[in-house]
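Anyone? Bumping this.
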Amino acid sequence: MPAIPEKILSMVQKPARYCGGELNSVVKNKDEVSVRFAFCFPDLYEVGMSHLGMKILYSLLNKDPEVWCERVFAPDIDMEKILRERNLPLFALESRDSVGDFDMIGFTLQYELSYTGILNMLDLAGVPVRAEDRHELKNLVVAGGPCSCNPEPIADFIDLFMPGEGEEVLPEVVELYKTAKKEGWSKKQYLLEAAKINGVYVPSLIDVVYNDDGTVKKFVAKETATLPITKRIIKDLDSVYYPDKFVVPFIDIVHDRSQLELMRGCIRGCRFCQAGFIYRPVREKHFDTLSKDAHNLCDSTGYEELSLTSLSTSDYSELEPLLDDLLEWTPKEHVNLAVPSLRVDNFSESLLKKISKVRKSGLTFAPEAGTQRMRDVINKNVTEEEIMATCQTAFEGGYTAVKLYFMIGLPTETDDDVRGIVETAQRVVDLFYHLPNKPKGKGVQVTCSVASFVPKPFTPFQYEPQNSREELHRKQEVMRSALHSRKINLDWHDAETSYLEAVLARGDRKIGKVIETAWRKGCNLDSWDEHFKFDVWMESFAECGIEPEFYANRTRSYDEVMPWDIFDYAVTKKFIINENKKAHESVTTPNCRLKCSGCGANCLKGGACFE
Amino acid sequence: MNDMINFIDVRLFYTKTGSAKYISHLDVMRAFQRALKRSKIDFWYTEGFHPHLYLTFALPLSLGYESVAESVDFRLISPMPYEEIVHRINAVLPVGFRAIAACRPKMDAKRIRFADYDISFAAEEKDVEQTLADWYRCFDREEVTVLKKTKSGEKEIDIKPHIKLSKLEHKDGRYCFKARLASGVELNINPDLVFEAFKNFSGFKPEDIAVKRMAVYNEKMEKFR
């Protein structure tokens, strides 16, 4: 009997979020599998179902006939209320069984603001939130994904982390679980064995010792654990598993299309960008592999859109031939191509022609900063001329809306840099009106989306303080007063969210009790503005005697032990420190393809990144 | 321009049962777009700026209802036997949807006037005799007025001439009845309105309502084909 009575589905908004049965979802007989794995995304269905990593690992785990991987998402407020009122558990979509019935409960950590969601989902499943309160092997809680590069803030809640890429290590961890279950191991026995797997971090086997000032003094590995733990990567992307099917949702989700992963890593080395560092070294898929993947996905899903995904799509070395191939068959099969993540400096006219052939939509670029000096500091190797040239190409190609991404609060930033954002946007507007061959009968719309900078682990800016909230608010005002055109739309993320993100991103284990306190006081789905309760978070910090400024707004010295120093993410500390120094001197570093700067990441690959 | 192109109109009848009832009409349209695309049948696409597979559904079904009498129209650009169309589409439809027949459309969907429903709801602990009595007193009235939401706001209408209800039976802990309701573009009486009327009369809002559309008819009470 499923844990969930049918009728509650008719009592909620969007029941299709919870009813399962989507095309390509996998249903097995639970009596014929040895391990049941609940793949949990700590956010709503529409967000979680858009995530490529989950699609890959879901299909991969289900390839094993002995394993049944099911999907679980955070329920929306209305569903949660019904579950709690009627004392019903959180359930997995495929079987509608309680998550508490599963052997392994896995969370993907995509952003820091989803942490309270993890606690809430465990609690709804009737599973104790703290690892130490779960004594059985059953309900083993594991986690992976980008935020596991600093898992310390949630180390109290998770039994085992898998930093890095999951396609190899996750099946190894599941395989060990099969043995453990068959042989009746205790949870402790399992964790002791799991800690021997390359790239597995078991927090209960590592102690943290702090200095008097609250910074980390050292880590102590116990029993089978060793330090540092090296993240796992897939060496050869052409031979790694890629799903030929995606689960196709009924309801509209955030990214509702086939996604083709072109490469991992990024050659650029923008100093603020965590993805640019934690996914190193750069590895590309070959054009043949991609062409085959694209066909498979379009055939099995019926999606009307195919998106090329990577951190910087125009840096993919075989992009033009790939587009030629795709443009050969996608129009005939009524599939639109979406090509996000293009860089402004190598956005050629022929490329623009190719992508605009299928569909015209808005163009987005990320200059990230408003002045050249600031762009040099962050190593965003893009010049004003390149931005203007790209916009000109776009306008001449018929585009009239451009979206530009910027950040405020970057290291060394002055008010001139902040005003530079609006001034850059203004020059784009002026450029449009000075074009003799501008699109007729239409005005231009330049949208500037301005985020507040959040220093992240494993980036050269991991040592930098975040601007205080007051300072960020002031800078937002500086932008507002520099704005004189109605053709420019300024919108910014709120500083409070970025502040909390900064604390959680670079936090240590002491933050765990704050997360638990905030959750017990009602914080959940924090990445949604309408659910974010900043005051409750601040109350929780105060109650736990933790100062958030210590984590967000303090300059850290190069020799400070970082909470994430338990991990070796392959990029050397020497390189990171050197990049930080160069930032303060406004000196740029060339991209990896132009010249190898010796970050150290290629040791995982066993050779140079580029021939 | 369109008459230059030879396309073949096809009407597909299908059922929507089980958890597919939780898929809204808008989502059903999208699911069909994608399913038909997977079938690799040569469909006709619209010729606008954003070409899309041409699909029209006869009578939208409310979220939460099942049906064994759904239909969708599309166009083929090359002929194919109807059995093969049904077969190929069944191979690609999501769970809960099942194609049952295909044919050349014989009636315009504008001619739809009635639909039959099998309806049941949970029996409360309340007195069964009382509920049955209330039910008949409610629907035996000369006029059964209820507020109906329309595009131009709410309007009070008398649904009595537009509904025909069978006997209300009490079995296995549920009440069941059959309803023939006015349906179509001109006047559409949703089964919910029947319950709305009952609630207004008796103060009792039935719970756990199950509705299944059984058939759709034109003005001559011929089955919609």
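Late reply, but here is one note on the structure posted above: Chain B has two domains: 2-105, 110-218.
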